[in-house]
Model the fold of this input.
Amino acid sequence: MAKIAVLGYGTVGSGVYEVIKTNQTIVNKNAGEDIEIKYVLDLRDFPGDPVEEILVHDYDVILNDPEVSVVVEVMGGVEPAYTFVKNALLKGKSVCTSNKALVAAKGPELIKIAREKDINFFFEASVGGGIPIIRTLNLCLTADDIEEISGILNGTTNYMLTKMADEGWEFDEALKTAQELGYAEHNPEADIDGWDACRKIAILTSLYTGKNTDYEKVYTEGITKVSARDIKYAKELGLKIKLIAESQKTEAGLVAMVAPIMLKKTHPLYNVENVLNAVYVRGNVLGPAMFFGSGAGKLPTASAVVSDVIAAVKNRSNIKVEWDEEDLNLASLGSVKRSFFVRVSGSEDEKLKRVNELFGEVRTVKVPGLDGEFGFITKVMCEDDFNVGYDMLDGAIRRIRVDNVEDK
Ligand code: HSE
Done:
């Protein structure tokens, strides 16, 4: 019998409780022994909920109980989660977490403690919700030199962009619904400003390079500036705007970023809609691989957490995770080549000559009903060159990167 404790009874914590109760037989079978939730820690009370029988408010009860071999941390945020997790590991208890903020900020230190104590620190649910991408990178795609990972790693913003494009929802309505569905972070700015996706691409980059990627150094742009007008232009062009998190090896070094990107129909992430996430991985011998599934929400996230619990019960000794404390140097985005979409005020007749002077040949676009402005897409060029032209363009309203996989 393996006894576990769950820290936090919010969306994910209650999901972990539900998944274990619903699938108890299969969970026990896959773990090779019975798994019992001995404690749930939360500051709140839950009158009428069966969890009350095992609810505790004092973390020391869990920490000092030698029967608890696995601690599940699903509280979110760096503190007090970091202190709780570190102390659990130091006491010889394996930890499974869904907490991106914690893993991105403290991952290498916690991985090191787990290694020294010969136990495990697992964090499958921290990226991609229910998609098993962490274990895949750590244990499966190990024969490859990974050249690129790009993905839709935030369910909230993907849901919002889908509803804004398909149903014409306003930004605020889409966000409110994503919150009601349990997709958004406690502070949804982490989703819409891109920080959640940024932490996730930093975690994936750390795993495939083996070095620590400081998420604060990853160029990050969220979706708050994406307007209904931008989406109309994208539709007119047959493109979709998605919040893409990407990390790739280039001649200048490894570049990582999060930003809204216009995707063509041929892009592997084009059809990833609603709360779904997908991770595209390119290895030097594997070529491309795609991992696709439920990216946020109570039960998909809990499914990944419980799979970690099962792995921790099955593997009492440490499974090595390649993620050292040494910092990874990130190269600037300046040399990355792609096309850019620009909206500019004025008419094509009066502005096109100047646009051509700054960017060369472009493809122009006009959306019926949007007067006093037009849009254009540049040829493939590096970001630095584009920025020089953009800064000199009078009346520029907005620019969005366009992916040109096949044109590079
Ligand atoms: N807020 C996150 C998202 C939850 O929307 O993807 C899953 O990490």
